[in-house]
Every structure is written in structure tokens, then in C-alpha cells.
Design goal:
Layout (H helix, E strand, L loop, with lengths): L1 E7 L7 H4 L7 H16 L4 E8 L3 E3 L4 E3 L8 E3 L12 H12 L7 E7 L4 H12 L5 E6 L18 H14 L2 H5 L3 H6 L5 H10 L7 E7 L6 E6 L1
Parallel strand pairs: 1-7, 2-6, 2-7
Antiparallel strand pairs: 1-9, 3-6, 4-5, 8-9
Helix pairs in contact: 4-8
Length: 233
């Protein structure tokens, strides 16, 4: 059963070494992420599953390595202790691994799940149920960004639909509104380059039948991209 969840954005810029001179601009976002991870630790789960968007889905065991070399920084991370062979973590899970290292997360076993960013909503619903099946106390760290179309200089350019989309996502995440998250428009999310849509909908499915309450910890759009942090407990 799901006992807690943290929702965090996944831009590599969240890692100070990648952000370099712009790193202080995301200090508040990092602090909010640390608070959200603190909520996970306080729930004392038996296992942590990290969900993050990627070009294709896949499972990554504890100890899988990742790096930020693709972003010009010679920095390696690892998803929990150990050393698992296989492909490197996708960017979203590498950011999650950095967050876990940065906050000294060593509480419970951890595994990563890359989610196809275009996964249909009905498959997200099934995915969420499978993720928590058979584990008595599970926590989720859910990575993903809002729209990338909030300003003219944003990666997706300016789209007037972006701010309302992000506002509804922020409201739903802050209220742990499962039906509202499940109803997020898949096509619109794709057009707005909102990578968090599928992971958020998986979270909504995983939380069915629980009494989790949400709190929105951060809601800003630096660089024209919606970054949201929430904690459910």
C-alpha cells in the first residue's frame, strides 16, 4: 500500500554542478524537494520506487549508475547503494538519484522505473496498481515537469494554455485530487511538453484506496518551465 509520495521536477539544472552560475535560482526548488523527501522518510516505508519520464519505459535496480556527462558535467550518481550492471539511468532518474544522495537517503531499498512520457492515461492507471501490488508499505518519488511553454524563451515557446494546465496540475497535486490528475489531457500535455503527466497519473492510480493528503511545496516556472513540488502523506 502507498504510504507516502513526493513529487519533484526533473531538470538536470536542479543539480548545482549542471546549473553552474544559475544554480542559486533553483535553491528554493531544491529546498522544497528536500522537504518532500523528508516526508517520505517520516512515513517509514519498506521500499521506495522512483518514477521518472523517459523516451521509453524500463526498470532500473538499486545500484544503477547515471551521469550528467551529456550535460557537460563529469558527475556520476547511483540509485541507492550497490553496483548494478546494465544501462545508465535516464536523465529524470539520474536527477532523482542525485536528490537521494544529496539528502542522504539510505532508509530502505530503492528501485527506479522509467515511464514512457506518452504512456496513455488508461495504461497509467494499470501501471499504478501494479507498482504498489504486494508491498505492505511503499513510497513513491515521482519525477516530472509541468509545461515547457510558459514564456517566449521557454523550450516549447509561449502557449497560452500552459499556465492554466500547470495551475490545475498544481492544484490537483497539492490537494491529492486523484480524479483531477487522472483527467489531465494527454494530448495537451504532449503539446505543452509536460513530462510529468504520465508519472502523475501513475501516482493517482497508486493512491486509490488510500487516505493520503497532499501539500504543495513549490510552484514556479523558471526558464518558462513549470516546476512543481508536492508531498503526500
Amino acid at each position: 500500500m502507498l504510504v507516502a509520495a513526493a513529487v519533484c521536477p526533473c531538470p538536470p539544472l536542479l543539480v548545482p554542478e549542471v546549473g553552474a552560475g544559475a544554480a542559486p535560482e533553483l535553491d528554493a526548488a531544491r529546498a522544497a524537494c528536500a522537504d518532500a523527501l523528508g516526508v517520505l522518510a517520516a512515513a517509514r516505508p519498506d521500499r521506495l520506487v522512483v518514477l521518472g519520464p523517459a523516451e521509453q519505459g524500463g526498470h532500473y535496480p538499486q545500484g544503477t549508475r547515471g551521469s550528467f556527462r551529456g550535460f557537460g558535467v563529469d558527475l556520476e550518481v547511483r540509485l541507492g547503494p550497490g553496483d548494478a550492471p546494465g544501462p545508465e539511468l535516464p536523465a529524470s532518474l539520474a536527477v532523482a538519484a542525485w536528490l537521494l544522495e544529496w539528502t542522504d537517503w539510505t532508509d530502505v531499498p530503492v528501485e527506479g522505473v522509467a515511464v514512457d512520457a506518452d504512456l496513455p492515461a488508461d495504461r497509467c492507471a494499470g501501471f499504478g496498481a501494479e507498482t504498489t501490488d504486494g508491498i505492505e508499505r511503499i513510497a513513491l518519488l515521482v519525477m516530472g515537469d509541468g509545461s515547457a511553454s510558459r514564456t517566449l524563451k521557454a523550450p516549447g515557446y509561449l502557449d497560452d494554455r500552459a499556465a492554466p494546465f500547470d495551475a490545475e496540475a498544481a492544484r490537483a497535486l497539492g490537494a491529492a485530487d486523484l480524479s483531477a490528475l487522472a483527467a489531465l489531457d494527454t494530448g495537451l500535455a504532449r503539446e505543452l511538453k509536460a513530462s510529468g503527466r504520465a508519472p502523475w497519473q501513475i501516482l493517482a492510480s497508486a493512491a486509490e484506496g488510500t487516505d493520503l493528503e497532499g501539500a504543495l511545496l513549490y510552484d514556479e516556472a523558471p526558464y518558462g518551465v513549470g516546476y512543481l513540488v508536492a508531498a503526500w502523506s
